[in-house]
Amino acid sequence: MFRAARLVVFGALLGVTGCQVRVSQEALDLSALDVSSIDLRSASGAVTVTAGERLSVVRGAESGLPGFEFRHDVQDGVLTLDERCPLPRTCAVTTTITTPAHLGLSVALDSGTVNLSGLSGAVDITGDGLTVTGTALRSSALTASVDNGVVALELEDPPREVFIWVGSGEVALNVPAGAYLLDVEAPLGELRLVNVVHDPASDLTLSAVVDVGDLAVEGEVALTE
User: For labeling, which of 3, 35, 177, 219 is most exposed (least CB within 10 Å)?
Assistant: First the structure.
């Protein structure tokens, strides 16, 4: 049993095409829950996850058919967020999550955008057509698998394990300068490495592959006074 502040608003608009658009909104205060990781699954939309002191979720959606509903559940410390949509391609969900930085995060989104900021827990992103951006990340383990799209991440701390795959698109990684166990490929695009070197003995693994498209890994040099 848990307490959650929940606000749900339903509305209907009639578009010029005659299709009814149903608007749903939900706000959850989940700070009282014992959560170690977040698992979000959605067909399409925009996901924003930002580090903060308390765990909260705000979701909004537009759907073309009745029967849509937001769903959430907590099992063994995992908060699962998804929705019921009669025709997934007709539902676009906007999700904004504020979470303690150390919580793990898994996002499965067929299409849309994922924006991350300030996280330090493990991150796993999968999707078909995605734009994934991240700033001020301190995650030691980070994976992303995107069929078609763009992945652009800025990591403040040297990552222990990074695995990125993009079928068609672009990858840009900004990491602390240094030696990594590198596995980087862009067979049908440009590969650019700046201020990072390959060291087979390094315990920091950085693997990034773009089948069709460009890959850039840039190491930021720390400024000293």
Answer: 3
